[in-house]
User: What shape does this take?
Amino acid sequence: MSQSLLEVRDLAVAFRTYIGEVQAVRGVSFDLNKGETLAIVGESGSGKSVTSKSIMRLLAKNAKIRSGEIRFEGENLAAASERRMQSIRGSEISMIFQDPMTSLNPTMTVGKQIIEVLKKHRKLGGAEALAKAAELLGLVGIPSPEKRVKQYPHQLSGGMRQRVVIAMALACSPKILIADEPTTALDVTIQAQILDLMKRIQEETGTSIILITHDLGVVAESAARVAVMYAGIIVETGTVDELFYEAKHPYTWGLLASMPKLHEKTSELTAIPGTPPDLMFPPVGCPFAARCPHAMEVCVAKMPDYTAHSDTHSAACWLQDPRAQKAAAATGASLGGER
Amino acid sequence: MAEQGKKKPLVQVEGLKRHFQVGGGKTLKAVDDVSFEIYPGETFGLVGESGCGKSTLGRTLIRLYDATDGKVLFDGEDVHGTKSKTELKALTRRIQMIFQDPYASLNQRMNVEDIIAEGMDAHGLAKNRAERTKRVVELLETVGLNAEHAKRFPHEFSGGQRQRIGIARALAVDPDFIIADEPISALDVSIQAQVVNLLQKLQRERGLTYLFIAHDLSMVKHISDRIGVMYLGGMVELATSDDLFEEPLHPYTQALLTAIPIPDPRLERERKRQLLQGDLPSPIDPPSGCRFRTRCPFATEHCKNKAPEWREVRPNHWVACHLYGSESDRAAMKA
Ligand SMILES: Nc1ncnc2c1ncn2[C@@H]1O[C@H](COP(=O)(O)OP(=O)(O)OP(=O)(O)O)[C@@H](O)[C@H]1O
Ligand SMILES: Nc1ncnc2c1ncn2[C@@H]1O[C@H](COP(=O)(O)OP(=O)(O)OP(=O)(O)O)[C@@H](O)[C@H]1O
Ligand SMILES: [Mg+2]
Ligand SMILES: [Mg+2]
Assistant: This one.
């Protein structure tokens, strides 16, 4: 096993709103190893973006990290000063967002924007910085980069803009790149180019990537490991193969089953009935219990612990819990925990 | 749809164009010379890159936009022909639309009952208050909601539930043909399946015909009998869902299919993909000849000089590409 670069432990984040407190992230733990791509998938509102913004400490003003640690090379970022975070952001850890326009300044040429980053973190200036900016644009596959550095964001297509944002994020060779839905706004043919680009850059620079996406196809293509989030909790984590072929959590089963298969004819998709819980009033038990076809009494009453299935694979589900398994065996009941 | 040759089409689109005048005296050809047919009871899927003209085509079919040129026949009737108010009303009752954004497409100030009944009221389909309420409750139940929901407002619903309200509203006037413009794109994977299953169930029960516009090719394949692929305002290929996926002919369709990430890591690792170079050109100043030639790995001088014809190269399989053109076009490609 490679060494972990980032260790998130028991992270909890809440938002204060005028009608109450939203428990957006409720005890999330995971590791990111050197040079790997970890995908985070899950329902809309499950806490993927909040988790990644916590790492960058870019949360909204009404947010509070309630508990937990974010250890980056041993240093707890959850407790770091804002000044310390400023030197980390963009240089050690960078982030790319879904909409490239949110990260670009419309009034500045893209070259100038990259140069700003280089000046700030690498103390490069003048002709050297300009040359480096053009080199970075070339690296992300923008043709005639010397010309493009002089253009403004609105003069570029969506795919080009996302490449510029990636170039900016890579300007200081960060150790971690967090990409929050980097291709969702793009077409599949452009998406394929961008994913290919990220893969190539990772091979060349050894950057670790956290890839947030709702597209399981993108996960299968790009990630080594996956964390599945539901209602502010990681319900299952494993290598891509463990997750796609040996999933243990009923939500993961549901997610996999609800996608149409390109190579099989299915007359009806398997939908997960219902909707996720309101995080203003998170359930005490398993948050998926209300939609789970295998739910038992204990699921509603108590949150399950993680059961490990291998060094890399674990799931938080009572079906897999050794105590529930034992109880079922004793009474001769079936837990139904098979797909 | 093997028997489609004999069936009478419900929708016939002939040489349809919809151009927009944009600044500087320039013309944006959002839809440019598109021809195809949709048969009763089928689902016709429409795919293509963002901005290629799918929504504009859908809107022009039901006269939300006027056609710049060409014709749309609905059940034999010219949609864009001059019509009296009653004729137009009769037509709009038979064709309904479901929109992409379940947040923006419902009036936030109306309760669910009024939203669903709006079309019924306009067409005088309910005799009295009691019948109106009864129909609304039936519709809510049809789409998997219930009577309790009738008096609530859109903001109290989740995305999937709102999309169900949009579907109930479309069904309220008992249409024959529904244009669903990215009806599931804004929804979560687990909710998408609920909505797609509902659309299919309604089709079986009511014999509805769908034009299903989407980005997600695996979902389009799942739901469609036939699929049309658009690129930069034109249709480049049209075939049954199975034929298109098993044997895509147009280089763009081929690239599109290899670009879809497959949710299966083992298949993904083995897969060789052919990446397209470059970006989508601007529809204001599209390339001469074949629109796709600037990104096409097979393009030659001929593609620059002449636009390919729209031809049925196999039974029910249409393509616009010189590689499958007339003998002289194919010869010119080799030269
Ligand atoms: N500024 C905020 N104020 C209040 N609640 C917030 C705020 N930002 C996020 N939330 C809530 O936190 C929860 C998690 O949101 P988050 O953005 O992390 O979801 P996500 O998993 O990234 O979803 P998506 O796939 O839609 O991007 C949601 O319930 C959201 O409504
Ligand atoms: N009312 C309008 N005025 C001017 N241009 C328009 C108008 N409506 C659409 N267009 C342009 O027509 C082209 C086709 O747009 P359309 O919305 O039909 O694309 P689409 O295929 O539906 O894209 P998407 O997948 O992003 O929804 C685009 O270039 C768009 O900018
Ligand atoms: Mg998010
Ligand atoms: Mg559209």
Summary: Residues 99-173 of chain A form one domain. Residues 188-205 of chain A form the longest helix (18 residues).
